[in-house]
Structure formats: structure tokens, C-alpha cells
Amino acid sequence: MTRSQPIRVAVSTVILTLRRTDDGRAVLALPLVLRTRAPFAQQWALPGGWLTAEESPVDAAARTLAETTGLAPSYLEQLYAFGAVDRSPTRVVSIVYWALLRQDDVEAQIAAHRASGRAPENVQWFEVDELPALAFDHAKIIEYALWRLRNKVGYSRVAQGFLPEEFTLAELREAYESILGRQLDPANFRRQVEAAGNLLPTDRFRTGSHRPARLYRDNTDVELADRGPLGPEETSTR
């Protein structure tokens, strides 16, 4: 690399979902794309691409994500800008976005993309605890995204981003446990959640093999993520 080389700007996206394994566990997972050319040919990488002169970084992130995976979250949050000098054979700064998607939304969007005849190629979902070798510094990027998520769950309602509009407290606790990577005491969790006042009980119940469980919904008077003072063009794909 020489100082005369131009600095290019790329975008990448970390998409996280909570999916159920064959043995019934709920695990965090994300899509990766298999690179087909150098550098790092035949290695997995985050969805992404180059920022063009005609689009904002968040629009570029949404475009490249849709092109590579068929996914289109309604909201992308900027995670960080990664610009270590030696992160790529040429000088590249990557603006990274992240988003949470419910598994049913993932399945519906992928199905619609396939039905359109534009099925994404070279895409595979991996559990975050079982990632392959990754191109560039993408392992560090994912590690940082998970760190942000695990910190955010302590002071926000980010776990609800993995759940449907109505959910049981057991389902919410399972989301917390998957994010934090540890078991939580059900009774203590219930007390803490109810004391926070962020959930609204409904008059509906989920029935099954166990006794009926009350369904709750999010308090929509509070944003899922604090978007701060920036305008919507900086933080949203809509």
C-alpha cells in the first residue's frame, strides 16, 4: 500500500436474528456471503459493498444488503466506522450498520426474493458462536456488534426486536438469555420486567402443553432504539 492510493469507503451490515435450532434452542444467527474474488476469495464476509457518489451510507447499506441477501430491515443503526490502515490490501474505511430482524420476517423476505427470481447466491446463516474464518476484520466487527447488543440489552428494550408483536414473558426471557449467553432466574426476571413498566399486558393468552401464558406487547410510546438528534436520512432505510 502506498500513500498515493485513494481512500475508498465501503459499507457492511450485521443482521442478527434469533432462530431456533433442531434441538429447540434459541440462538443468535447472522448471514454471511462467500467471496468469489480476491482478496480473501472463498472466505466468508459480512454483506456489503462500495459507497457510491449518489447515495448516503445508510442507503448504500440497505442496497448492498438487499442485493446480497434479499433482506430489507425497516431500520438500520450505524454501528461504527472501521478504518485501521492494514484492514485491507488497499486503503478502505468501512461504515458498518446493524439491525435486528425477527425470524419470521427473515423467512418471508427471503421467500419473496426467491419468488422474484433474484435468489441471493453464496449466502449462508451461521450461529454467532460457530462462525467460520472471516475475511478482512469482519470477525472483530461481529464481536463489537455482539458487545454492543449485550450492553444495550441492559438499559433498553432491544431484545423485543427479535420477538413478534405479542409475546410471553418466557419468550422474552429466552431472548435475553440468548443475547447474554446465560440462564436467568424466571421469577426474578418477571419481577424486573414488570417493575420496568415497558410492557403492556393484553387480555390474550398462548395455550399449549403447559398452562396458558399471558401475552404482552411493547409499549409503543417508547422507541425501540434511541435514534438521537440525527434526522431520519441518517438512521433509517425508509
UniProtKB/TrEMBL annotation:
Keywords: Hydrolase. The keyword Hydrolase applies. One of its GO terms (molecular function) is hydrolase activity. It comes from the Bacteria. Pfam families: NUDIX, WHD_NrtR. The keyword rRNA-binding does not apply. Residues 215-226 have a biased composition (Basic and acidic residues). Residues 6-149 form the Nudix hydrolase domain. Residues 210-238 are annotated as: Disordered. This is NUDIX hydrolase. Signal peptide: none annotated. InterPro entries: NUDIX_hydrolase-like_dom_sf, NUDIX_hydrolase_dom, WH-like_DNA-bd_sf, WH_DNA-bd_sf, WHD_NrtR.
